[in-house]
Amino acid sequence: MTKEKKVEPTSVGITVLLVKTITFKVAEEKARLIQSRARQERVSVSEYLRRGATGVAPGTLKPRRIRALG
Questions:
Q1: DSSP letter for each residue of 6-37
Q2: Which of 8, 47, 61, 66 could link 43 by a cystine bridge, Cβ 3.0 to 4.6 Å?
Q3: Nearby residues of 34 by Cβ (< 8 Å), 6 or more positions away
Q4: What percent of the chain has a predicted confidence (pLDDT) above 70?
Q5: How large is the angle between the packed helices 28-40 and 45-54, nearest 10 degrees?
Q6: Which residues contact 68 (CB under 8 A, 6 or more apart)?
């Protein structure tokens, strides 16, 4: 069961994106496996599952933060 919430922007320049929340149950062992694989790819569990569902190639890492010298 999902709830939809209407949000009205209160100020110019604010973008509001409405998204669905999906919840499901998994065994503890499977949850640990999913979390572990998401950490290995350095993404959130949500992003890991989204990539799996949409067929985006796994292993794509986010760019690392680099400090500028000077």
A1: -----STT--------------HHHHHHHHHH
A2: 47
A3: 26, 45, 48, 49
A4: 74
A5: 90
A6: none
